[in-house]
Design goal:
This protein is α+β, with helices and mostly antiparallel strands. It is built from two helices and 13 strands, in the order αββββββββαβββββ. The radius of gyration is 26 Å and the shape is extended.
């Protein structure tokens, strides 16, 4: 009897030790996986819009100062953009769709004057869904459909030294994308979101417009984009062209020409023609 009990205890200890070793192996694998993920910064954040630093941007005319101290801005400045997105869900409707949250941060930096102030900063959080379209037979070559919501503001209030600087707009948007070989064509339609407080800029849609078309084209290492948007009723809008070429790793030479209204929210009703050059870190 004692011998049976001894054998049973030995067997139980062996099973327990095996389970402990198995659990340890699983833990070690998970630890290694998450350590490498952290070590190589392999997280879910991906580029959304181009990320760039434009060190030199020259415009015709001068920028309006909204500073109570009447700070004079030069017509040469730098511009930064950081834009990231993360996939938060997918295939809820069994249509192969993906759900994203995104944030874009754009700053206009007067680095060539004393104290180098930021003239304007725009904040743009978004939420959108991408529905894939597998169209390989029609001449349109439909690629995907995007439905989203966007808030765009400069985070300012009308108080103290900052007078009449507040700008904001909320809107729903839909983008239809077509893909022909190395050419992507995107048609976007905007609708101001119900509940918009446009008291600071009641006519902003008259200048920013409600529709946009963008062409993105690759040839070899070169990438060109051309974007136009406008308001059919008022005739206002803007055109933007960009060029990028890889230099090393993920650093690209980046050039941009903008002409029209709405380069920044503070200047939404000022017509600006501007040439900028610098570096981009995503396309």
């Amino acid at each position: 009897m004692n011998k049976c009990i001894f054998i049973f205890l030995c067997f139980s200890i062996q099973i327990f030790a095996s389970e402990q070793e198995f659990d340890k192996n699983i833990t070690d694998v998970q630890t290694s996986e998450y350590f490498k993920k952290w070590e190589h910064s392999n997280f879910g954040l991906k580029p959304h819009l181009p990320n760039y630093v434009l060190l030199y941007g020259f415009r015709d005319g001068s920028y309006t100062s909204y500073d109570a101290n009447s700070r004079e801005y030069t017509n040469i400045e730098a511009q930064l953009q950081i834009s990231l997105k993360i996939n938060v869900a997918k295939d809820i409707l069994n249509l192969g769709e993906k759900y994203y949250l995104a944030y874009s941060h754009r700053a206009f930096w007067q680095i060539y004057i004393e104290s180098s102030p930021f003239r304007e900063t725009n904040y743009n959080p978004e939420a959108f869904v991408v529905f894939p379209i597998l169209d390989t037979t029609s001449i349109f070559k439909l690629h995907n459909l995007i439905v989203g919501y966007s808030h765009n503001s400069n985070g300012q209030g009308d108080n103290g030294d900052l007078v009449f600087r507040s700008r904001s707009v909320n809107y729903m948007y839909t983008t239809l994308s077509l893909k022909h070989d190395f050419l992507i064509t995107e048609f976007t339609f905007f609708a101001p979101f119900m509940g918009n407080d446009l008291s600071d800029n009641p006519d902003i849609i008259d200048y920013l417009g409600c529709s946009e078309v963008k062409f993105s084209y690759f040839t070899g290492k070169h990438m060109f984009t051309l974007r136009g948007r406008g308001n059919i009723t008022t005739g206002n809008g803007a055109v933007e062209a960009t060029y990028s070429h890889p230099l090393v790793n993920d650093v690209h030479l980046y050039g941009k020409i903008f002409s029209g209204y709405g380069e920044s929210l503070i200047d939404y009703n000022n017509y600006i023609t501007k040439f900028s050059v610098g570096f981009s870190f995503s396309r």
